[in-house]
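For practice. Any example?
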Amino acid sequence: MTHPNGKKGIFALLRRPSKRYSIATLLLAGIVLGVVLWGGFNTALEATNTETFCISCHEMRDNVYPEYKETIHYTNRTGVRATCPDCHVPKDWTYKMIRKVQASKELWGKLVGTIDTREKFEAKRLEMARHEWRRMKASDSRECRNCHSLASMNSESQKQRARKQHEMAIEDSMTCIDCHKGIAHHKPQGMTDEDEE
């Protein structure tokens, strides 16, 4: 199949076997190229999955990061630290990819300056928090449960109030974010009773 200008169509070329290279050579080249591309993609993905990357923009570094540094997730008696991606990026590859696509909206917000000042950030804070709370509730607080499990908690070593709340959470099929809003960041101004539920 040729076009009027005498050049062969790209699809016709792709369907024909190569005259110069064997199938094995083409297959091996394809595998090597695939490994290089996949490795590069995963390397870039993991580079964007670090606390350093998260706070590289001033919106996060200057607003929520200082709050997080005041919490038990940053400094505690055991020395175990939960970083930004531990709480905000799923570990499972499929969910991680979905979250990364969603995060592109946040990058767009940075580019157009939606939250580039403290005032703009605070004006959008409740909206952003509600979005994150909905995401965490929909996933049954999946990222929290990477480290915390109601079934694994030793209720005998908890204070009475915490023990009671965790027992109620099990009975009512509640998830972590139902009670622990504000655990790593300040609660936004303007929250309603519905936000607290």
Notes: Residues 23-47 form the longest helix (25 residues). Residues 147 and 177 are 14 Å apart (CA to CA). The chain is about 55% helix and 0% strand. The chain has two domains: 7-47, 57-187.
